[in-house]
User: What shape does this take?
Amino acid sequence: MKKLFLFIIVLALTANIFANGLSLNSIGTKALGMGGAFIGLADDPSAIYWNPAGLSGQDNGFNLSLADIIPTTTYKYADLGIDAEANLIHILAPNFFLNYNLEKLSLGLGVYVPAGLRVEWDGKDLLAFGGPAEIPTQYGNVTNPFAGKKLEWMSKLGVVDISPALSYQISDKFSIGLAANIYYGMLELKRGVDMFTLFNPESFGVPTMGEDGMIDTQSEVDVTGIGFGGALGLMYKASDKFNLGLSFRTPNNIKFEGDGVFDIQNVNKFDVEVDLEYPVWIGGGIAYLPTERFTITADAQYSQWSSLDIVKVKLMLPDAMGGETEDEMVLNWEDAVQMRLGLEYMATECLALRGGFYTDPAPAPDETLTILFPSGNYSVITGGAGYFKEKFSVEFSLEYLIGSERDIDAEEHNMPGVHDIDIFAFSLGFGYKL
Assistant: This one.
C-alpha cells in the first residue's frame, strides 16, 4: 500500500506541473497567437516570461488576459471493457504583466499561471477498476465490496508565478534582463479503488491488497508548495529587420507539503512531503521583419526533463502502518525540444493578424502515464488578431493541440490501453499604455 501511494503522489505532483499535458505553453495573448515563438521578439510586457531583456525600449503599460483551456480526453481498454471520456472541463488562467520604462532601465512585474490542470471522470465508466464480485487472495476468496461501485477519479492543479523583473539597455543593439520566479502550486487528487497494482506492470490484473489484508479504497491527496528560481534574457537587435533572443531559466526547487487520506472508511490520514526540481529551460529565437507590416519568428525551446528521473517522497504514516517512510521514484523522463514558428501581418495600422505552429513532445514515457494526468505528443496550430486604438489594445487568440493516440501494451505499462487527448484553448487580452 505504501508503494502504491508513493507512486500516486509522485505522479500527481510531477506529471502536469512540469510536463506538457495541460501546461500552458503560450503565455500572453499575442505570443499564443504566434505559436509561442516569441523569444526573439518579446515586444509586449509578457516578455517577463519569454525573454525579460525584451522589456527594454517598450512603452510603459500593462497587459491583462484570460485564457480558457478545454481538453477532450478519452481512455479505452478493451480487456476490461472500458470506453471512457472525461467530463467537459474549462481551465481558466488569468495573466497580468506590467512594464515601466526608466530610459535605459525597465522594471516589470508578472503574475501569471504557467501550468494548470483539471480532469474528472465519471466513476460509472471506470467500474471495471473495482474488480470482480469475488477475489481470490492469500486469505481465501473474499467478497469485493467495490465491484460495481461508483467512486471518484479527478485531479485539479493550479500553479501561480509571481515574477518581478528588470531589463537594462546596454547599447542601442544589446539588452539584458533578469526575472525572479516565485511559484505557488496547489494540487487536489481523488482516486477510486484500483484492484490492479499500478506499481508493477507485470502484475496488472492481480488484486491489490494492503499489508493488513484490506482492499485499497477511495483515496485523496491535497498538497501545496512554494519554489524559487530565476531567469536571464538577452536580446540583440542586429538590424532594423533582424532580432536575436536567448532566454534561460534556472532550476526551481519546490517543496510540496499537505495531507493524504486513504481507506476513507477508516479515515487513515497522513502528512506528505515531496521535493522536486523544476528543470533547466533554455530557448533561442529569431524575429525577422522583411517589411514594415510583416514579422516572422522562430524558436527552439529545450527542457531538461531528465533531471526529474528521481523524485524523493516522504510519508508520515500512522505508527500502526509503519510510521515515517522515505522512498524515491524513477520516472525515466527524457529531455524535450519544442520547435515553434510564428507570423504577424499588420493588415492596417490598427489591425494585426497572427498565426503559428509548434510541436510539443511528451517527456514522460508510457510507463508513467495515467488517466488522471493525460499527456500526449502534440502538433499545434494557432491564430489570432489584435486591434490597437491610441493607448488601448484588444487581442484574441486560438490554439488547437492535436494529440497522437498512445496505445500502450499491458506488459509494458501500469495503465495499459489507448490514451488520447486533444486541447482547444483561446485567450482574450486587453492592453493599456500608461
Summary: Helices lie at 2-14, 29-33, 47-50.
